[in-house]
Amino acid sequence: MFVMREEHGNVAPALVQKGEDLGNVRIDVPYQLVNILETVYPSSPGKIAVLTRRCDEKALAELFKRGLLDEARIVMIGLACSKEQIRLCRCEDPVPSRVVVGEPNAPAKGDELETRLSGMTPDERLKFWTGQFRKCNKCFACTTNCPVCFCDECILEDRTFVPEKGIPPGLSFHLIRSFHLADKCIECGECERSCPASIPLLTLRKMALKDVKGLFNYRPGEKKTTSPLLTTLDDQPLAGEGCDEC
Amino acid sequence: MPRVGVFICHCGHNIASVVDVEKVAAYAKTLPDVVVAEHNLYSCSEEGLGSIKKSIEENKLDRVVVAACTPRTHEPLFRKICEQAGVNKYLFEFVNIREHVSWIHAKEPASATEKAKSLVAMGVAKAALLEPQQETESSVIPRAVVIGGGLAGLAAASSLVAQDIETELIERQSELGGILRNVAIIGPEFEDSKKLLDSYTKRLTTSPKAHIHLDSRVTAVKGFVGSFEVTVSEKGVAKKIPAGAIIVATGARELVPMEYGFGNLPGVITQLELEKMLAKGQIPKRAVFIQCVGSRQPGREYCSRICCNVSLKNAMRILSADPTASVSILHRDIMSYGTASERLYRQASEKGVKFMRYGLESPAKVSKKDDHLMVDVYDETLDESIGLETDLVVLATPMTSQEDATEVGKLLKVPLDKNGFFLEAHVKLRPVEFATDGVFVCGSARWPSSAREVICQGLAAAAKAAIPIRRGKVVIEAITASSDPERCAACGNCVAACPYEAIEITTIDGKRVAKVNETQCKGCGTCVASCPNDAMQQRGFTTNQLSAMIDALIKSTVEGT
Amino acid sequence: MAEFQPTILAFCCNWCSYAGADLAGVSRLQMPSNVHVIRVMCSASVKPEYVMKAVSQGVDGVLVLGCHIGDCHYMTGNHRTAKRIPLVKKLIDDMGIDEKRVRLDWVSAAEGEKFQKVITEFVKEIEGLGPNPLRGVRF
């Protein structure tokens, strides 16, 4: 079982083998274990159980449908988020399909910053984001800790699309990230929590997801759906059902 | 370090009268990696080509940029010169400064020259990153598959076997002949359709090269020109047929009308129903034909081309059998194109057929009156409403695409136009072939055609299909895609996006990666754009190359250098 | 102050829009000289990243021109383009860049006049919007 565990005052991910003592499992620490599930699961045969919040469940759905993780080997233990966690994530979908741990709570009412930004003029919005992105130092914490960001070599590491030498990177860094995530992001908020410059990345993700919902009526996080960016205009994927090749 | 040569063409004064060619050449010389920049009066002339070749050799160039007209005409020509001079033909880049500059900015020579400079800078940036490519050859299976055993398919198959090519004819019904089995006499020459069909069928049944499959349907098509695998279900049994070329001759069907009381009033029939009656010798005393029923109107705007001729032919048949019969044709224009049909129109008129023009906004009304029918129509020419008493009302409806046309299109990966008929590569420049190599189309599947037209198209398709089969091999242009297994994260985006199912996820050295079947790849690049981390690249259009073009544009404009 | 001359990038597909542009040339249809064409085989091969890169580095407008839906030489290639580009527009709008700076349109090989119209309209529109606010911005 894969959990966050406290030992000697430190909280870290831990892979607990069958029969081993679970120890002090901390369910209040908001780290996306799914993100590093890939690194432990190949070396550990058999099945792995992992505490999954609703966002983890959705992240796993995105990874399963691309064949990046084997659904048969993962047991999800549904974890309902606390009121505080829901507030911090501005989460509108906080309850997993099957709740095993924790009490289900009501979703948040929306993202206050997002509402404010949508009401601004484009110039005001540009001023806001350039002000934020000025702080970016290309630490790649957001990509590393994102559960649905799966490329080992990231396109943003090359100078092809992010030609600026040094920091901060140009707007293309953030635009491209936004685009790549638009059909996959499950709003876990890890990017925002990991960013050392406190850039409100979760808000940016929510804006993109709203765009995708508006354009294609699509929400990431389902196992059976294919990204609208890959299907034809009548929503037919061409190679069988979505990525069944995998 | 690439050695780029730039050749700016005057194209007489087509380019040079607007663009300062010498300035552009001088500018080109300052670009990175450019070792020589020249200008020629007519680059495509023997002299021009010769001078380019000489320059390549003398300057030991390994990348060539020509700034002239459009690559869509002369790219093969310059590529050949590169090859002759020892430079791989894929190390050549064409910049368009005629159709895209001098001809469209004729009154602004200064900005045209600046634009030409930027375009050349972009071309040079791409050329410097081009890599040599080898074209692959694929052998062609010497067999053709013809889908559809109507007149089009019969004509095509007959031509193919006459050329000594193994031909498999696939027909879904139990008999050959298609829609013409229901039409005894064909206009405008009043030919016996059975004789016509039999003459083609005989050519097939007496040839050892022809293989006819009745009660058969195509259920799957894999492969590409030269190496197709067509799966046919013959009477329920699946068979796989390897083929080098495929001809689509699936025909069309008569639209079933919804207006004028069809289905409710006895005596209101379709053209095919009339054919049946006439074949049985049932000649009506009075007949009214209504043309353009369900066509040339919102929702179905095309003219079905043959219905007027068919009505004229049938009107004449009625009058030949019974000279006292009364025939009227209500129309919105008579489309009797061609001398024979025009003659028929005049003869019909002379024989007493009444032609009445009606408008889309005021269609005729058909009602029952005692034991016959009443047709009330507003005749536009007479500016009068006329009432016609008749025994039969014949509705001339258009031909529409077959109900399985979309499926067939998907099976063969060929497009349909907005009316559901197959869309050929180009109406004038590439008739009877699809943009997809090795697949051809003829007959009413393409658009409603007369019997003679259908035969002509069948022969044309057979002639074109024979080309790759005779050649024995096809060359695949080296602009296909390939995935870098080191970068690939096997996310499957490319697999889902490829319109040709040419990509699959496979395991190489224990790692799951995407792999492109390069013989099936058509070089569209859809996969490249769906790849999140640049693992997928298209030869000749790599992300490095196109990004370098964007950078060059910015450098020469936004940054003003 | 010198009049603003926009720098515009256009991606044209070989079979339709590039041929349409050629036809406009052959027909001597005059238009502003701000648009620079990059030829690709299919509009579907235009990576959204190219558009975002161009906008981010100061290009004032980006045009993506493909075959009409239903006429794509590669069958359904342009369906993907039809979805990707509107999303790019929304995302740049989220960031505060006018989404009118990116335009998707369909030009067939026979539509020289449409090509002229699209170019002329787009250049005028971008002139009205002014230079890309990111020009020369190093945050």
What does this protein structure show overall?
- The complex is a heterotrimer of chains A (246), B (561) and C (139).
- Chain A is an alpha+beta fold and 246 residues long.
- Chain A has two domains: 2-89, no CATH class; 112-216.
- Chain A is built from nine helices and five strands.
- In chain A, helix 7 (171-182) packs across helix 9.
- Residues 238-246 of chain A have low confidence and may be disordered.
- Chain B is an alpha/beta fold.
- Chain B has a five-stranded parallel β-sheet, with helices on one face. In chain B, strands 16-23-17-18-19 form a five-stranded parallel β-sheet.
- In chain B, a hairpin with a 2-residue loop joins strand 11 (216-224) and strand 12 (227-234).
- In chain B, helix 5 (109-128) runs antiparallel to helix 15 (543-556).
- The radius of gyration of chain B is 31 Å and the shape is elongated.
- Chain B starts with a strand and ends in a 5-residue tail after the last helix.
- Chain C has 139 residues and is an alpha/beta fold.
- Chain C has one domain (8-129): Lumazine/riboflavin synthase (Rossmann fold, 3-Layer(aba) Sandwich), CATH 3.40.50.
- Chain C is built from four helices and four strands.
- Chain C has helices at residues 17-26, 48-56, 77-95, 112-129; strands at 8-13, 35-40, 61-66, 102-106.
- A four-stranded parallel β-sheet of chain C has the order 2-1-3-4, sandwiched between helices.
- In chain C, strand 1 (8-13), helix 1 and strand 2 form a beta-alpha-beta unit.
- The radius of gyration of chain C is 15 Å and the shape is globular.
- Classes of the chains: A alpha+beta (246), B alpha/beta (561), C alpha/beta (139).
- Chains B and C meet through helix 4, helix 5, helix 14 and helix 15 of B and helix 1, strand 2, helix 2 and helix 3 of C.
Largest sheet geometry of chain B: 5 strands, parallel
Give the termini separation of chain A: 26 Å
Helix content of chain A: 25-40%
Mean pLDDT of chain B: 94
Keywords:
heterotrimer, B: 561 residues, alpha/beta, Rossmann fold, FAD/NAD(P)-binding domain, five-stranded parallel beta sheet, 15 helices, C: alpha/beta, 4 strands, 40% helix
